[in-house]
Amino acid sequence: MKKRRLSLIMAALLAVTTFASCNNGGGGRTENTDNNAKASDTSASTGETTPPATLKSEDQQAIQEIEADLPKLANPEVKLLACFDLNPAEGKPKGVALEMFETKCGGKIVSDVCPWDSRYDYLSTRVLSGDAPDMFSAEDFDIVPGNIIAGKFQAMDKYVDYNSELWAPVKTLNDKFSINGKHYLGLTDTDIETVMIYNQRTIENNNLPDPAKLLEEGNWNWDTFISMMTEFSDPLNGKVGIDCWEFEHSFEATCGSPWIDFIDGRLVNNLESEPIARVQEYYTKIQKGQLRQNRAIGEKMANVGLGNTLFFAKGYYVLTQPNNVGNFGEMEDIRFVPMPKCPYTDDYYLKAVIKGFAIPTGAKNPEGTAAYLNCQMICRDNPTVKEIEKNQIFEDYGWNQEMYDMMLKTRELTSAHPVFDYYKVVNDNVEDLINGNCKDPCFTDERSWSQIVGEIKYAVQKELDDANAKLADEAALAQAAAEATATTAAEPVPAE
Questions:
Q1: Do residues 174 and 418 make contact, with C-beta atoms less than 8 angstroms apart?
Q2: Domain ranges for the chain
Q3: Which pLDDT tens digit goes with each residue over 20-77?
Q4: What are the angstrom distances between the C-alpha of 223 and each of 206, 238, 282?
Q5: What is d(CA 54, CA 385) in angstroms, rounded to the nearest whole number?
Q6: Which fold has domain 11-192+352-419?
Q7: Which end of the chain has the least Cβ crowding within 10 Å, N or C?
Q8: What angle do CA 161, 374, 416 make, to 5 degrees?
Q9: Domains 11-192+352-419 and 195-350+421-469 share a fold
Q10: pLDDT in tens, 255-298
Q11: What's the pTM value of the predicted model, to 2 decimals?
């Protein structure tokens, strides 16, 4: 499959700044009509526009009392291009950072909601027409380095003070994605990409150890994971240990060595590393034991609730979507844990997603984007904000205490050792070479890992060398940005 990017921006989670609002897994894109619909759409039956969401009056007052050195914006309107709307409709929880941005900065986010698959087409058309957006989501993890090489985004150092006390908690994170000392992303946090969702009743009915207890005891690792799946799986009777396309990407990251890394502004090829080879050995165990859902069948989320699938690898955002939650069983039985620990590492290394925004080339109000990001940073670790968000999680999503505590635990583990894999963000050629090939040992024994590496490593390295040469050439990056705004669009994106 050519494009196996998953980016499910959660309209339901836009209010909760501690949540991941998108997931960058490997599966086919799962549609959620709420995510692609504009909150300002007109109702066909009433002819009225859906009012925006508001916070409770006591929460509004609490936010007003938070000390924040935020000047009023000279230009209050900030244009966002994304496949989600930062302004949730009435009846959905409103983001605390958005409330602060509106009341303390006098700002207003104007969202242009577009289909996820077409977001870069929309971006190009807007830039070329002289109406570039001011904000673009960085959470799809596809801006650095490929789209910087293409000149689609500008450095943000002029607008965001990455060396300030406010941004100190995420300076290392932002520095990791810098190019030639310049920052092209405004990242406010990380979150775990994929968790292992399971049904507690299924665990108990099969006399299996509780994964949460294993995690607490320091025994949740590759070996206990394989052991549990081996005991549970019965392919002839439709019982499998693990399902969902995201699994291989996130399991691979637990060895601490991504397939493609980005170090000091250069792309690094890890395909022949020892940690990656160890991952592939376990993939072979999964394949030989028939522990994995058949690739041809596709993911079957409902089998978790039916007791036929032990683990389902997905971002925990699915547990906030009413249409999905029922697939996992009764809410009181739903649990999740992070990916199991690699036995060869000293700690948990977990694949992470990034949270934040970038400023497109040609943006008219980059100061407004920076102001909104500053609001996010002020809210990031504020205890008042955390309490508001916790209440939203319980009231709006119906989570139990075990789920909430595990969310905090997975975030803690992820922030300690976040792993990012760059095979998707160089160009389509690198993604196509790695995406399916590196998963194959989980599904088939037709080729060994050494055979797979031998077939693709030179082509991958050639692409990385070409990209690294462009990244090192600041003049080339500047020229690409100039060309991004100088060409006339051949065809406008059709209006929706």
A1: no
A2: 11-192+352-419, 195-350+421-469
A3: 333 333 333 333 323 333 333 333 333 445 677 888 888 889 888 898 889 999 999 9
A4: 18, 23, 9
A5: 15
A6: D-Maltodextrin-Binding Protein; domain 2 (3.40.190)
A7: N
A8: 80
A9: yes
A10: 999 999 999 999 999 999 999 999 999 999 999 999 998 776 77
A11: 0.85
